[in-house]
Design goal:
Length: 146
């Protein structure tokens, strides 16, 4: 595994490099604790690699073209976003989240997962979207199903 600062490129890597060149303001024990926590986070992510690839493969295998995208037949594609949100809702629930689904329109559901803390701490929000643009001419794809 690369060290965390080696996993960044471009501007992020430059900012990390510049931060290293500045005088240390934390105590050495704090720095070691942060380094140990960072190492533990990267190790946990590495351990979940196969699961993350599997879940992502499942999610992207569901066509979820935005039914309002120009040139789309609304009735032909509406509902696919809801299928992705249903899968994400299951994933959130398996992770211990309380799941709510909100429909923008029929068939266009969003899944929201909440894991409550004990109170008093900061919140962390992951936000994304499940609709995509059409894949274009499938004959032009060089491999696989678009």
């Amino acid at each position: 595994m690369l060290e965390p600062e080696q996993q960044f490129s471009g501007r992020a890597r430059l900012e990390i490099y510049e931060a290293k060149e500045k005088p240390m303001t934390r105590e050495l024990s704090d720095t070691r604790a942060v380094a140990a926590e960072r190492k533990a986070v990267f190790a946990a992510v590495d351990a979940l690699r196969d699961d993350m690839i599997s879940v992502l493969s499942d999610v992207i295998s569901i066509p979820s073209v935005n039914p309002k995208y120009p040139g789309q037949s609304y009735d032909d594609v509406v509902g696919s976003e809801g299928r992705v949100s249903d899968l994400l809702g299951e994933i959130y629930q398996d992770a211990g989240a309380e799941v709510e689904k909100w429909a923008v329109e029929p068939g266009r559901t969003n899944a929201v997962g909440t894991i409550s803390g004990t109170g008093g701490g900061k919140s962390l929000i992951f936000n994304g979207h499940v609709d995509v643009v059409p894949p274009g001419n499938a004959d032009r794809w060089t491999s696989g199903d678009p």
